[in-house]
Design a protein that fits this description.
Elements: E1 4-8, H1 15-26, E2 29-32, H2 33-41, H3 45-52, H4 54-69, E3 74-77, H5 86-95, E4 96-102, H6 105-112, H7 127-145, E5 148-151, H8 157-168, H9 176-179
Parallel strand pairs: 1-3, 1-4, 2-3, 4-5
Length: about 180
């Protein structure tokens, strides 16, 4: 029986804020794999990308996912590139219901548009083109990995969390009743 919830999706889809709201509502622990990576590396995601490169970051991400999946009763907010490595998705699917939070490109840009310093992949002349290209590459991976898909466009984190709780109640492979005490 799975008792973790993993949130995947593109940057700006709301994985962290929704994950925090969901963890509060269900009285679960919350972890963010990017926070785990930063703590382990002693530097920000942007600094890791700049100083060590994306491949080094992806290796740290793989370890963070493995550690997060070893937990119980936890909401796991994953970085946007987690689906690029099949071993990450395999680990998530073993311990968690995987929920793809999707958002339209314009919503993503609105949410993260001013975040070039902390979003290394958006440090480009045309962030909209980068978002469109990365979404074309990643959306099929997110879709394939997901047990549940929720469009977050135009919704608050609380509303998305409520939709997730409703959807989780329909999945027999997830033990929602055990954790939900309120």
């Amino acid at each position: 029986m799975k008792n973790n919830i993993a949130l995947i999706g593109f940057m700006g889809a709301g994985k962290t804020v929704t994950g925090q709201a969901l963890a509060r509502l269900l009285k679960l622990e919350f972890v963010d794999t990017d926070d785990m990576i930063e703590a382990r590396a002693g530097m920000s995601v942007a600094e890791i990308f700049a100083g060590k490169g994306e491949e080094a970051f992806r290796e740290l991400e793989k370890e963070a996912v493995r550690q997060a999946c070893s937990r119980q009763n936890t909401v796991i907010a994953c970085g946007g590139g987690v689906a690029l490595r099949p071993e990450n998705i395999a680990a998530l699917k073993e311990s968690a219901m995987v929920i793809y939070l999707e958002a339209r490109p314009e919503a993503i840009l609105e949410r993260v548009g001013g975040s070039r310093a902390t979003r290394p992949l958006l440090d480009a002349d045309d962030p909209a083109a980068v978002v469109a290209a990365l979404l074309r590459e990643r959306a099929p991976l997110y879709q394939k990995a997901a047990d549940i898909v929720i469009d977050t466009t135009g919704l608050t984190a609380g509303a998305v969390a409520e939709k997730i709780i409703s959807e989780l109640g329909r999945h027999e492979s997830f033990n929602l009743q055990k954790q939900h005490t309120g």
